[in-house]
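thought: user wants a sequence for this fold. calling inverse folding tool.
action: design(structure=
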């Protein structure tokens, strides 16, 4: 599994909003400058996060973006699912139900399912608050 640039930048943008939260809206250009991300590319990512309810957006003077809940309520999994669509390592695990014709005889399905559960548990166990407090990589419990 490979997390795209969109997913990585979404996490960086959300983390930036968490670290710079004063209750006011933060402009896209401020986030882009601090994170060294193209404003145009970041706009598409932020728009996706906003449309999916992870951020509040305000247009016009004094507008921008802000978190709509506390950093501890955002899991990394919730952000990645918006940007990546799924965390599933194989196509047959992407939907609610596995519709693969070979599922009943697949010798690798259990392995992929266990791997998928590990990925989800790992990213569900990390919040923006954890990253703001600089929790070390070895500190995460699976």
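)
observation: tool returned 142 residues.
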């Amino acid at each position: 599994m490979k997390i795209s640039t969109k997913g990585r930048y979404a996490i960086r943008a959300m983390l930036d909003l968490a670290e710079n939260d004063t209750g006011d809206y933060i402009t896209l250009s401020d986030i882009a400058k601090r994170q060294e991300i193209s404003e145009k590319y970041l706009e598409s990512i932020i728009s996706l996060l906003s449309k999916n309810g992870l951020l509040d957006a305000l247009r016009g003077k004094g507008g921008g973006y802000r978190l709509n809940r506390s950093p501890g309520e955002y899991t990394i999994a919730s952000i990645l699912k918006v940007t990546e669509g799924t965390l599933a390592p194989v196509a047959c695990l992407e939907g609610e139900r596995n519709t693969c014709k070979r599922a009943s005889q697949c010798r690798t399905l259990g392995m992929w399912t266990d791997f998928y559960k590990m990925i989800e548990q790992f990213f569900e166990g990390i919040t923006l608050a954890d990253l703001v407090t600089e929790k070390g990589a070895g500190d995460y419990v699976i």
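thought: summarizing for user.
answer: Here is the designed sequence. The beta strands are 55-58, 64-67.
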